[in-house]
Amino acid sequence: MAYTEVSLADALEVIDSTNLSDIISIQKLPGGWANSNYILQLKDENKVVLKIWDEQSIEEVEYLLNMTSYLSNNGVPTPKPISFNNGRLLLMKNNLAWSLLPFIEGNWLKSNHSSLYTLGQIQANLHTINSPPGLKKDFSMGYKLFQKLFTIAEEKDEWTDFLFLLKKESSKLEDSFEDLPRGIIHGDLFPDNVIGLNDEVKSLLDFEEMCHGILAFDLVMTFVGFGWENNFPVAKHWFSLLEGYQSVRKLTEQEISALPDLHRLATLSIAAWRYWQFVINLPNTEHTNRYLEMIDRLDKQLPF
């Protein structure tokens, strides 16, 4: 995991390129596998988040910031990137892209009825927004990543039980969802990407997996993130999420029939990302076997 250490002087240099107030203090924010995050306390009592994109190119960061601005402008509760004095949404420093966002007060969203009902409503609203020009088509944790893992295994002759399973299971599901409704999806609505306060959603974060994808897939991916306890599915969490979602957008019969297979694909996608991140990209950490949690879920009975 790359990480950029930021001094108060570094942060002041960035703030000087905006119309924001001066800085009082800087504090690291936990989390983030592809960027470094800091809270900046300003003299006018506002707070902003300084994000350093350690693993993304300038083009990738510009794309993500523009897409986030589009969503914010269209009513999605997500922090809108702050413009610098030159009109851009990023600043280049030490060959990395740096950006600023408003800080949202709150905690990671909990899995209770009110929270999940609200999350379902917001996700359905997201799914009704027209896709912006240039929105990518491929879900980066899906078949694109699967093929990358298979190619590495073939080149290194290092096929594992997991990769054999992934290839078998994903092949069964491929091309099964061609006719399902598509639109903007977040792709990764896990608890650490949703800020809540008083059992309501305050903000969605980290749209790095955002794409023009299968809407019902996005919904079950949220259940993968919020709906399980002790690695068992919790039916009431699903029905809270679904009730909120369908108060805004009704699932079609075809979508309802596809939910179990879509959930299987979502579970495999998270397993594949964890395998890529913690077995191949960042080996020998305490997270090495995290992908196995998802594999253990494949044969559990679902509430749909």
Relative helix content: 40-55%
How far apart the termini lie comes to: 37 Å
Largest beta-sheet details = 5 strands, antiparallel
* Strands in their spatial order, largest beta sheet: 1-2-3-5-4
The shape, in one word, is globular
In sequence order, what are the helices and strands, one letter per element?
A: HEEEHEEEHHHEEEEHEEHHH
Question: Strands, helices and their partners?
Answer:
Elements: H1 8-15, E1 23-28, E2 36-42, E3 47-53, H2 58-73, E4 91-93, E5 96-102, E6 107-108, H3 113-127, H4 143-156, H5 161-173, E7 182-185, E8 194-197, E9 200-204, E10 211-214, H6 215-226, E11 228-229, E12 232-233, H7 235-246, H8 253-281, H9 291-297
Antiparallel strand pairs: 1-2, 2-3, 3-5, 4-5, 6-8, 7-10, 8-9, 11-12
Helix pairs in contact: 3-6, 3-7, 4-5, 4-8, 5-8, 6-8, 8-9
What would your notes on this structure say?
- Helices cover 41% and strands 17% of the residues.
- By secondary structure, it is of the alpha+beta class.
- It folds into 2 domains: 8-102, Phosphorylase Kinase, domain 1, CATH 3.30.200; 108-297, Aminoglycoside phosphotransferase (APH), C-terminal lobe (Aminoglycoside 3'-phosphotransferase, Chain: A, domain 2, Alpha-Beta Complex), CATH 3.90.1200.10.
- The chain has a 5-stranded antiparallel beta sheet with strand order 1-2-3-5-4, covered by helices on one side. Strands 6-8-9 form a 3-stranded antiparallel beta sheet, with helices on one face.
- The longest helix is centred in the C-terminal third of the chain and has 29 residues, at 253-281.
- The relative contact order is 0.12.
